[in-house]
Amino acid sequence: MNDLFGGRRPARGAANASDAAAYSAKDIEVLEGLEPVRRRPGMYIGGTDENALHHLAAEILDNAMDEAVAGFADRIEVTLEPGNWLTIRDNGRGIPTDPHPKFPKLSALEVILTTLHSGGKFSGKAYSTSGGLHGVGSSVVNALSERLEVEVARDRTLFTQAFERGRPVTKLKNAGAVHNRRGTAIRFRPDPEIFGRQQFSAARLYRLCRSKAYLFRGVEIRWACDPALAGEAVPPQAVLHFPGGLSDFLASAVEGRSAVVPAPFAGEAEFAEAQGRCEWAITWLEQGEGFLNTYANTIPTPQGGTHEAGLRAALVKALRAYGELKKERRAAAVTAEDLLSGAAGMLSVFIREPHFQGQTKEKLTSPEAARLVEAALRDRFDHWLAGDPTTADNLLAWAIERAEERLRRREQKDTPRKSATRKLRLPGKLADCARESAEGTEIFLVEGDSAGGSAKQARDRETQAVLPLRGKILNVASASADKLRQNQELKDLIEALGCGAGERFDIARLRYGRVVIMTDADVDGAHIAALLMTFFYKELPELVRQGRVFLAQPPLYRLQAGGRSLYARDDADRERLLKKAFKPNQKVEVSRFKGLGEMPPATLKETTMDPRRRTLLKVVLPPEERARTSELVEALMGRKPELRFRFIQENAARLDEAAVDV
Ligand code: 0RA
Question: Which of 499, 588, 491, 478 is nearest to 546 (CA)?
Fold first, then answer.
């Protein structure tokens, strides 16, 4: 009962400094052990998947960042070693090692690492900049680590202590004198009992370090990674320091896209009464989707929150006021969504004791943040607009156009809905087939509008439908359920199929006999095909099980000689045909198709779509792999691009073997 874990202590821990017998009953009330964390990791880190695994790293890095943001550290080292060991070292004050004020038998360090305390509770000021979960984070990481080693340089002394699965396995040791050095180093290895064989992704950790360095220019992050783990996208070593802060970050994020404004609206502001500060950088894109990345104390808040609300309010109010000044009546119709959905921006606030909501704390709820950010930005955006009327006019016109487009869309949507009977809602891009019943029909999923155009001309209108999909569809294996539901391309696809997805799936309502994925015969095409297969596998597995999903095999080359044309699928096929199908000295003209969109419809029909002449590959689950496929898809279609390429290649090869020609 005395044990911090509420259970038996391992023999190794029996003699350690945290001899719990000294606690009074009152103390035990306050100190909660780590057993709940191991029992229900999801409650603390939102699951046990790859995201959760990386949450551990973010947690420790956030603590080090807190020291930096509070002005006590300016360097952080992050080192990934083989065996899934991650070390995060800072030159801050060092976790306190003296006896804990409330539990004098224990060092503060041990209390911090072995109990679920709420950060600010027992240490007031010391935790003043840490946020929500992040104040308690290190003990959660400790609980979920097979082993965790701490080194603290403080008061000219080096202290060390080691833990396993949250329990101390050594005392806090005095490891001798140190000079000119202070800070904390935490080295840990996530517990395979919790996370299985999942490993840290070097790319993901590197990205995290980079974004932290962008978010706080007062810190230099030194990244080091075993070259064997680095892969191609990640340097084995890097010094990350970005004096340009958020503006640099934004510039790298929108590189190559053209903007409506000549330079971003960017700056920083102190909040009144020393309540913190904020930084921002926002631009408006001519085309495509934007983003707004928000942070509180360098912690990402993907679900936004009060700081984001403050920014939206400030910007839209300032723009409307500008419109009013210019006697532009239509400005009143502009909403924050009109102004911001096509914007690309970053907002970073630093406030005392931020509050977060949600299981993984992805939303800022501190009410004062809305007011502080709105006040700070309203003024600056007013000035920004007034200072460059040409830009301001362009931006206003851009926003008005979006507002009017939104109103038009709403009208269009309302009209058919009013007159709708029991008709199915089908996506506008779908070129449906004429046949009423599903039998003998097929739907071709093609990559982009131009390929869609060719396919529409090449099809048999009676039995073949065509649905063009825009570019790379969402990767289902790594997207959240919310994102999935919001993805327009996938929504269109499910609507066209008519059979629902996930829990609402009903094969009886499938509107076609077969689904044919028809992408270009190149790497991008293979990627899109893999994304679509992942989607079917995850959301409509019954379609795959029933053998209703196919891959078309468009040719990559045309070989012409003596009035005869042959088509080759790939380089090997081309070589084979050149050898076998033509006379040795015959001059053969070889042309390469850039994509399906470039192929004459008659050729597309003849080679790829006409049921009498084409070859389709059936997507099947090889029996011995059925059990392993879910794991594979998760691991490889998840967030590891370096493995993905191999996955596509291997799977393509295996598909050939498993393929049934139809
Ligand atoms: C509690 C109190 C103090 C610092 C820290 C924790 C601390 C935690 C971590 C975690 C990683 N690096 C860290 N650095 C410091 C304040 C100590 C004081 O007042 O001197």
Answer: 499
Entry pTM = 0.58
72 pocket-lining for ligand 1 (C-beta < 6 Å) = no
**Residues 7-17 pLDDT 10s:** 323 322 233 33
19-33, 37-51, 423-437: segment of lowest average pLDDT:
19-33
| CB-count exposure of residue 492 (10 Å: 0-12, 13-18, 19+) | buried
Tell me the C-alpha distance between 38 and 141, whole Å: 10
* Element (DSSP H or E) covering residue 481: helix 481-486
Mutate to test the pocket of ligand 1, among 95, 139, 157 (most ligand atoms within 8 A of CB): 95
- Residues with catalytic roles: 447, 520, 522, 524
The verdict on the CB of residue 95 being under 6 Å from ligand 1 is yes
Q: What is the pLDDT of residue 471?
A: 63
The domain ranges of the chain are 36-240, 246-406, 420-554+593-621, 625-662
Decide: 93 in ligand 1 pocket, CB within 6 A: yes
How many angstroms is it from 217 CA to the middle of ligand 1?
20
- 603-629 residue pLDDT tens: 999 999 999 888 888 888 765 445 555
* Domain 246-406 is found in CATH 3.20.20.70: no
Is residue 175 scored above 60 in pLDDT? yes
pLDDT value at position 102?
81
Q: What are phi and psi of 366, to 5 degrees?
A: -55, 115
**420-554+593-621 sits in which CATH class?**
alpha beta
Within 388-445, where are the H helices? 389-419
Q: Is 114 in the pocket of ligand 1 (CB under 6 A)?
A: no
E-assigned strands of 459-615?
464-469, 514-518, 549-552, 557-561, 564-568, 589-592
pLDDT score of 123 = 38
Question: Which residues, at least 6 apart from 473, have a Cβ–Cβ distance to it below 8 Å?
Answer: 487, 489, 490, 493, 528, 531, 532, 535
Nearest-CA residue for atom 10 of ligand 1: 63
Cβ of 308 closer than 6 Å to ligand 1, yes or no, is: no
Residue 29, pLDDT > 80, answer no
What is the third-level CATH fold of 36-240? Heat Shock Protein 90 (3.30.565)
